[in-house]
Amino acid sequence: MASAPATPAPAAVAVPTASPATLLRLVVIVAAVGALEIACRVGWVPMTIVLPPSVMAESLWQLLLSGSHTRDIVVSFSNVAAAASLAVVLGFLIGAILHTLPPVRGAVEPLLASYYAVPTFMFYPVFIILFGVGSGAIIAIAVLLAIVAMITATLNGIDRIPLVLGKTARMMRMGPIERALKISLPAALPYLFTGVKLSVAYAFIGVIASEFILSGAGIGHAIAYAYNNFDNRTMYGLMLLIVLAVTVINAVLDTIDRRLQARLRR
Amino acid sequence: MRHILGPLLVILAGFLGWEVLHFVVANSSLPSPFETIVQMGVLLRDPDFWKQASQTGYAFGIAVVLSTLGGIALGILLGMGRLAGQVAEPILVNLYSLPKVTLYPVVLLIFGLGISARIAFGIMHGLIPLTLFTMNAILQLKPVYRRSAAVMGLTSWQTAFTVILPAILPQVITGARLGVSLCLLGVLIGEMFAARNGLGYMVTHAMERGDMPTVLAVAVMIAAVALAANGLLLALDRSRQP
Amino acid sequence: MSPALASVAAPVPAEHHARLTGVTRVFGARKGTGVHALGPVDLDLNRGEFFSVVGPSGCGKSTLLDVLAGLSSPTAGTAEFEGKPINGVPAGVGVVFQEDASFPWLSVEDNVAFGLRRSGVDAAEVARRVDYAIGFMGLKDFSKAYPAQLSGGMRQRVCIARTLVMQPRLILLDEPFGALDQQTRLLMGDELLRLWRETGATVLLITHALDEAAMLSDRVGVMSARPGLFIDVLETGWPRDRDSRIVSHPRFGELTAHLWDKLRAESLKHLRGS
Ligand SMILES: Nc1ncnc2c1ncn2[C@@H]1O[C@H](COP(=O)(O)OP(=O)(O)O)[C@@H](O)[C@H]1O
Ligand SMILES: [Mg+2]
């Protein structure tokens, strides 16, 4: 974990999610949502600050039905998809190239280890100059945020290909391309996928945050707009959408990740 | 010395690339590195800059202290109760990858537009990674440590301070490093949106005026300070694990 | 002899199946302060024999194997396989490495079939050979399992089966049972003997276990501490259809004692030295 990017180490202990824990987690979440609902309904929490979860859900439902924010939703998700794909592809290529150039890697790696300490986001205005207000600048900053996780994961993945698999490839007299496709890639895949997972999370953060600070479209923008116009219903509806989307995407990626990691447990 | 040289060369290459970009971008609305450095000099002599910087520093300092204490405490609590840890882990990981900006309006509604909202937002960013790292460090602690301590006849307090704490310290420091960085990000994003002071505000305000040298000067200075601070923590981190 | 595993007849009938003459290996020779890991070593492997190499750790056993496998070329001396100088990995040589080399992303079946499929053998023949090798190594019930679900010993069997299906004429094994417990090792030794008898292949086994060498081999080469040289080559005189029960034979004790006699001084050098 020494030079890994901003990833909390997954709890090896908690990996085979014991069903009592899963069940209890569900109970905890339901109880928390219920408590908030009651607190709002009873008036302990003023409706001007937080809306009851049921109202949030209702607002989201209406918002989706009426199509009032469909454009924002499409814009945000396509930006996230574009940024994450770019980050994954470019990050993998850069990582793979760096791996073949040890001196360059030695010079770059300390910076990669400290990369997530830099509030990259402060450079968003620079991208606005370069690309103008719109998807270009947003995708650029999101890629910048996500790519280093992929580079680091790629370097780590290639490092961790056991030497003996390389020897095995040589015993089978494989050429470099066959070896890369049939040995190196599958051997490094679990680590690469960790990079993919992180890249998606960072792309999400980058896109939504940029839209929030300065943009003319997207869910982030719509939330900021609703906030500025005291439109709490829309604001909370969209927040719920983000939370749900991130949770679902996380759960899917996590399931794949766990499957891949399970192969490695030796 | 040699391992400093490489990164310095890379940074230098970055500045060169920036210079090239400066020439390529149409009628150069992108300031050159030189202009940026000149602007840094101007800012460093400007009392208003220091006022904004101290605002950011103040919010950041409080957020770091509170999220560090809170994160470690919460992590220990969740780690000690194994089930609690297993229940909380996926929730925390999910919160970690949530774009927390979306929740900033809630923070503003609760705390108002003042500095406390930004502190709270910084804590929201910094607390989770430290909690996760501390919790996982305890959950993954080798049982043989505790058993050895028991065999040596240590009391539970002695075990906590002479065995468990040193054993989890490296991971706690890693988590703290991450937490501190994210705290700064949280405070700055808070300032960029709906604030009237702080360096984040200074950047958005300068951007609205089209004052790009100031935008870049402030961003580069923050990046440099953050990199240096992180480098120090990293060195500390590495000196503890051979 | 089973048709599914039988080694293809050698194209060049040679009295010596593989031969090392004055083989020396120095690592980092160009930097001046090289590590003299091996040699000069002379070794003649007879066709169809079971030869073991024992020696203190770090004495150059794996280096010797790499030279025979064509994975590294000697700094000095010559290596031959079936009468031709070894230049790159020769056809007809199979290796089982010390480390687990099974592919974690493939099932046992696909692991074993991997080499055959890419060598253009037709599907029916692949299935036949894979089936046989999996059965032979006692992996029938696990053919759909993934390596992560298997124990270390079973994974090593997957690697042996994967080497076996390629029908090598020379099988090199580098401490393949190093990580296993003693009982499992004895049983794996039996399987190795069975495999050797059925395939008629030449086997070179590297091991640090003296009893393993004494029990399995026709001949045992004892190596000195680094740089490794053969200080003794011992003929065991066992019949071809031996198995692990010979450990109760008085000769087994004598052989093991003799090996330890030769090795004790060398191992001490290793312990006291680097
Ligand atoms: N690639 C290498 N570079 C430098 N020294 C090596 C290399 N490979 C092995 N050695 C050295 O050569 C000696 C013999 O190694 P090896 O053949 O692996 O020993 P063994 O298999 O008998 O334990 C050891 O001292 C080892 O440190
Ligand atoms: Mg070895």
From TrEMBL, chain A:
Keywords: Cell membrane, Membrane, Transmembrane, Transmembrane helix, Transport
Residues in ABC transmembrane type-1 domain copies: 73-257
Keyword Transmembrane helix attributed: yes
Pfam family for this entry, one: BPD_transp_1
Segments crossing the lipid bilayer: 26-52, 73-101, 121-151, 200-223, 235-256
Gene Ontology biological-process entries: transmembrane transport
Topology class, membrane: Multi-pass membrane protein
Highest taxon above the source species: Bacteria
GO cellular component: plasma membrane
InterPro entries named among the record's database cross-references: MetI-like, MetI-like_sf
Compartments in which it is found: Cell membrane
Family of this protein: Belongs to the binding-protein-dependent transport system permease family.
Protein name as it appears in the record: Nitrate ABC transporter permease
TrEMBL record, chain B:
rRNA-binding listed as a keyword: no
Residues spanning the signal sequence: none
Subcellular location: Cell membrane
SUPFAM superfamilies: MetI-like (SSF161098)
Membrane topology reported for the UniProt record: Multi-pass membrane protein
GO biological process annotation, one example: transmembrane transport
A GO term from the CC aspect: plasma membrane
Residue ranges of the TM segments: 57-80, 101-128, 148-169, 176-195, 215-236
Primary site of residence: membrane
Domain of life: Bacteria
Alphabetically ordered keywords of this record: Cell membrane, Membrane, Transmembrane, Transmembrane helix, Transport
Ranges for domain ABC transmembrane type-1: 53-233
PANTHER family: ABC TRANSPORTER PERMEASE PROTEIN MJ0413-RELATED, ALKANE SULFONATE ABC TRANSPORTER-RELATED, MEMBRANE SUBUNIT
Similarity comment: family membership: Belongs to the binding-protein-dependent transport system permease family.
Protein name in UniProt: ABC transmembrane type-1 domain-containing protein
Automatic annotation (TrEMBL), chain C:
Domain ABC transporter: 18-250
SUPFAM superfamilies in the cross-refs: P-loop containing nucleoside triphosphate hydrolases
Record's keyword annotation contains Cell inner membrane: no
InterPro entries assigned to the protein according to its UniProt record, in alphabetical order: AAA+_ATPase, ABC_transporter-like_ATP-bd, ABC_transporter-like_CS, ABC_transporter_ATP-bind, P-loop_NTPase
Transmembrane segments annotated in the record for this chain: none
Gene3D superfamilies, sorted: P-loop containing nucleotide triphosphate hydrolases (3.40.50.300)
Domain of life: Bacteria
Alphabetic keyword roster: ATP-binding, Nucleotide-binding, Transport
Similarity comment text for this entry: Belongs to the ABC transporter superfamily.
Designated name of the protein: ATP-binding protein
